[in-house]
Amino acid sequence: MNDSRTIRVRFVDRKLYETYLKLKAGKTEEKRLAEYLERAIQDLKKDPFCGIQIPRRLWPKDYVRKYGINNLRKYDLPNGWRLVYTLVGNQIEIVSILLEWFKHKEYEKRFHYKVR
């Protein structure tokens, strides 16, 4: 990304960050998911716009109500996992705020995609 702004990645709240830390200390599958998330965090630090923009009509109402978002993006993780985040920023910095991660099936359900 060719931008002089500072780029940061943050978890939406302490609870989500603690969940991430538990994954890092967990069993094999949990550690693997933590590695996927770490890779996503590093990618977002290089380019906050690397995820796919989610159309507004698909945004869960509770995201808008709870977080007051005005944009929403997803980052596809390996093995069918999805990371959902929003961006906030100004002329000085861009912050990717991690909101949630889940399996693809849960993602489809949350975003009301037609499940076959």
Q: Can you walk through the features of this model?
A:
This protein is of the alpha+beta class. It has one domain: RelE-like (YaeB-like fold), CATH 3.30.2310. Helix content is 38%, strand content 28%. β4 and β5 form a beta hairpin. α1 crosses α2.
Secondary structure blueprint with pairings:
Elements: E1 6-11, H1 14-24, H2 28-46, E2 52-53, H3 61-67, E3 73-76, E4 81-89, E5 93-103, H4 104-110
Parallel strand pairs: 1-5
Antiparallel strand pairs: 2-3, 3-4, 4-5
Helix pairs in contact: 1-2
Short key terms for the protein model shown above:
single chain; 116 residues; alpha+beta; YaeB-like fold; five-stranded mixed beta sheet; 4 helices; 5 strands; 28% strand
Rounded to the nearest angstrom, the distance between the terminal CA atoms is 37 Å
CATH topology: YaeB-like fold
| Integer average pLDDT | 93
The strand line-up of the biggest sheet is 1-5-4-3-2
Alpha-carbon Rg, integer: 14 Å
- The total of helices stands at 4
Overall geometry? globular
SSE order, one letter for each helix or strand: EHHEHEEEH
- The number of distinct structural domains comes to 1
The CATH homologous superfamily name equals: RelE-like
> For the report, how would you describe the main beta sheet?
5 strands, mixed
Give unreliable regions as ranges: none
Structural class based on helices, strands and sheet pairing: alpha+beta
The CATH level-2 architecture is identified as 2-Layer Sandwich
State the CATH class. Answer: Alpha Beta
Strand proportion: 25-35%
Number of strands: 5
